[in-house]
Design goal:
It is globular and about 70 Å long. It folds into 3 domains: 75 residues, Beta Barrel (Thrombin, subunit H), CATH 2.40.10.10; 107 residues, Trypsin-like serine proteases (Thrombin, subunit H, Beta Barrel), CATH 2.40.10.10; 110 residues, Pdz3 Domain (Roll), CATH 2.30.42. The chain has a 7-stranded antiparallel sheet. The chain has a 6-stranded antiparallel barrel with strand order 8-9-10-13-12-11. Strands 15, 16, 19, 20, 21 and 22 form a 6-stranded antiparallel sheet that branches. It has 392 residues and is mainly beta.
Length: 392
């Protein structure tokens, strides 16, 4: 979600102040012959009072206090990143994004797409301290990167990471970042869904992504998504625009804390993270496929293609052999169906992606429980490192 500097329109509300006319005593300037002088008429203007503040319900007041406190504590640890590219002897601003302090050594977590291709970058803190950052490591598969500054301003403390198991749909979350270059913006929403699969910057997908309705826009990329305790639950990365604009339509995605915990330490230590690779393409088994293949199960990961030369091919796994019509629908048949990995049940293709991505490393051997031609088989597969380039 890297964006070029964009103009921001400001709308001003015209506040009309009513003019209050204060009436004074009015006296008739003449008298009527042989009649006494009339008593002057006094017009009294009613006293106007300002609207009185209402007492917020306890729940609303409590959440408001939590949000104010959270912002005051967390915002000093959220940074504005400006990237530059070199043209001749000149550095030209190229894009903006966000990030957050990861540790006391000055490491900053952000998105890979924020800093990818940058020749130089500025890291700006909430107190307007502007420091030159250097890229420590980039992982295109997870769209994560680590930048480092040589010192941290006062109050810029490392943000704690949440327990991935603590996340729940409906949980209140907060995003802090720099949408459209507007520093230190807080937005609020909920976790709309968990376990989404979103595209990375390669042909591989990012598992376990968090979907949120907290407003996220260009410039928020790399900033933290937080729970109300101020713990990082994800890194804001993508938005769904509906294809009509570059602004949020109520659907945003964050790279989950489970991926942050896995990738960031390797980026700091080695500048890269090695992902395990099985070498298959496929999808979640459907009821129609299960019927077409006369399977006794209706849940699993169907393998439609085995990547040539990959670990799965070396282990003898099979992909689709053709199609078959069932009730007017053409479905792929003949491929192996994974129903478990290391005795962990598999009910979808995403389960395979999550297990291989987050639970194991290159060089490890996993045992797949596979259905082939209706028969259950145990197939060991030694995983390899993901290739840098893989034809879609």
């Amino acid at each position: 979600m890297m964006n070029l500097t964009s103009s921001t329109k400001k709308f001003f509300a015209a506040v009309m102040i009513p003019l209050v006319l204060l009436a004074c005593t009015v006296t008739t300037p003449w008298t009527v012959r042989n009649n006494p002088v009339q008593t002057p008429v006094v017009v009294t203007q009613p006293t106007l009072t300002a609207p009185q503040p209402i007492n917020l319900p306890p729940a609303v007041a409590d959440e408001q206090a939590v949000l104010i406190n959270l912002y005051q504590r967390i915002n000093p640890s959220v940074v504005h990143i400006t990237t530059y590219v070199r043209q001749g002897n000149t550095l030209i601003p190229n894009g903006v994004g966000s990030g957050f302090v990861y540790d006391a050594q000055g490491h900053i977590v952000t998105n890979a797409h924020v800093v990818q291709g940058a020749d130089d970058l500025d890291v700006v803190f909430s107190d307007n301290s502007t420091l030159i950052g250097k890229i420590v490591g980039i992982d295109l598969n997870s769209d994560l990167a680590v930048v480092q500054v040589d010192r941290l301003p006062e109050g810029a403390l490392p943000l704690p990471l949440a327990d991935p198991k603590s996340l729940a749909v409906g949980q209140t979350v907060v995003a802090i970042g720099n949408p459209f270059g507007l520093d230190g913006t807080l937005t609020r929403g909920i976790i709309s869904a968990l376990g989404r699969t979103i595209p990375g910057l390669t042909t591989f997908n990012i598992p376990e992504a968090i979907q949120t309705d907290a407003p996220i826009n260009p410039g928020n990329s790399g900033g933290p998504l937080l729970n109300l305790q101020g713990e990082v639950i994800g890194v804001n990365a993508q938005i769904e625009t509906g294809g009509t604009s570059r602004t949020n339509t109520g659907v945003g995605f964050a790279i989950p804390v489970s991926v942050v915990q896995l990738v960031v330490p390797d980026l700091i230590a080695r500048g890269q993270h090695d992902w395990a690779w099985l070498g298959v393409r496929g999808g979640t088994l459907s009821d129609v496929q299960a019927e077409a293949m006369n399977l006794s199960v209706t849940k699993g990961a169907y393998l439609s293609q085995i990547v040539s030369g990959g670990p799965a091919e070396k282990a003898g796994l099979r992909g689709s052999s053709g199609t078959r019509a069932v009730n007017g629908r053409e479905v792929e048949v003949g491929g192996d169906v994974i129903i478990a990995i290391d005795q962990t049940p598999v009910t979808s293709f995403e389960d395979v992606l999550v297990y291989v991505s987050l639970q194991v490393a290159p060089g490890q051997t996993v045992t797949l429980t596979v259905l082939r031609d209706g028969q259950q088989m145990q197939i060991p597969v030694t995983l390899e490192k993901r290739p840098k380039n893989l034809t879609p």
